[in-house]
Amino acid sequence: MTGSTRAPFTADDYRDRMDRAARAAADAGLAGLLVAPGPDMVWLTGYAPTAVTERLTLLVLVQGRAPVLVVPTLEAPDAAQAAGAPALALRDWTDGKDPYAATAALLAGTGRFGISDNAWAMHLLGLQRALPGTDYASLTDALPMLRAVKDLAELELMAAAGAAADATFEEIRKVPFAGRRESDVGGDLADLLRQFGHSQVDFTIVASGPNGANPHHEVGGRVIERGDMVVLDFGGLKDGYGSDTSRTVHVGDPTDEERRVHDVVREAQEAGFRAVRPGVACQEVDRAARAVIAEAGYGEYFIHRTGHGIGVTTHEPPYMIEGERQPLVPGMCFSVEPGIYLPGRFGVRIEDIVTVTEDGGRRLNDTDREMVIVD
Ligand code: ZN
Ligand code: ZN
Ligand code: ZN
């Protein structure tokens, strides 16, 4: 949840998003959308309940009807304060009543509804009981690009989050690494992200030496040594929008092999970035980065997709992966983050958030992509 974070959007902005979402749902053959608390609800209404409980809270969007937020009575005063509240009707229900029957009455007949990926199973089961004959698709499956194209105000917030992550890197490269635990440097990263305006820290990966060969190693108790490569990958939310960047630093002088592997990843990241332009399929960004690594002989050690979308969450569609034919559209934001992972030895990953422009791509992270030497 984004908690008290408030992005600078008005009720009109949220009304427009809800209209577009309902229209997109109808165009996709859906009877409507059922949106649970979480990123979709934040993006559509600005409402983030302080506590998500077993009580049903659900935004119902059906084209041609006013949006309705089904909300527990005790939460209704908070919901009424949300920036998007003037654009929707609140329908509260009190403990002891059946919220599913009340929701069923709002849905125009039966059909197929898109429902938030993170809706609780108990709520979906309740709706299925109350509305036999309806069918459901996950919102990510049904409308994967719903939040993918950012408007100008969103792009400014994305750029500010990226700049805060870059400022974090500029500070972390000055701290001592050798002799400290990964978790100590991870703590520094979290402190810096907050100092530079993040309200939420999602991950602070400090993967030293052999731990670097595991792409999602977070932080552990390992003491960093001279001679270690250290993958740093960190991000979170600032003013409701995400940051996510990686740089791989070296403690002291690197070996020729370490330098070569780092160079290959840097060239792969550059190739992925240069592939970005409107109309190009997402998979082409992956192919461009992967080709550089494969040609250098490290293909089997690049063990994940090249990138993921980012916005009000730090991982979302579109995905830069083989098989994803979705064309890039100006305003999309995603990571370009190739890596090479040598089991038992070390790993290298370099990651920038990139946004699609009319004639190419623009990086939202711009710290040194050459190998930075730390102490
Ligand atoms: Zn080394
Ligand atoms: Zn990352
Ligand atoms: Zn990432």
Task: Provide a concise account of the structure shown.
By secondary structure, the chain is α+β, with helices and mostly antiparallel strands.
Provide an overview of this structure.
There is one protein chain. The protein has a 6-stranded mixed sheet. The protein has 2 domains: 11-142, Creatine Amidinohydrolase, Chain A, domain 1; 152-374, Creatinase/methionine aminopeptidase superfamily (Creatine Amidinohydrolase, Alpha-Beta Complex), CATH 3.90.230. It has helices at residues 11-27, 39-45, 76-80, 99-106, 121-130, 139-142, 152-172, 182-195, 256-274, 282-295, and strands at residues 32-35, 58-61, 68-72, 89-93, 112-115, 135-138, 200-208, 229-238, 241-242, 245-251, 307-309, 316-320, 333-336, 339-342, 346-349, 352-357, 360-363, 372-374. With 375 residues, the chain is α+β, with helices and mostly antiparallel strands. Strand 5 (112-115), helix 5 and strand 6 (135-138) form a beta-alpha-beta unit. It has 10 helices and 18 strands. Residues 1-5 have low confidence and may be disordered. 48% of the residues are buried. Helices cover 32% and strands 23% of the residues. Helix 4 (99-106) packs across helix 5 and helix 9 (256-274) packs antiparallel against helix 10. Residues 233, 235, 244, 246, 337, 351 line the site of one zinc ion.
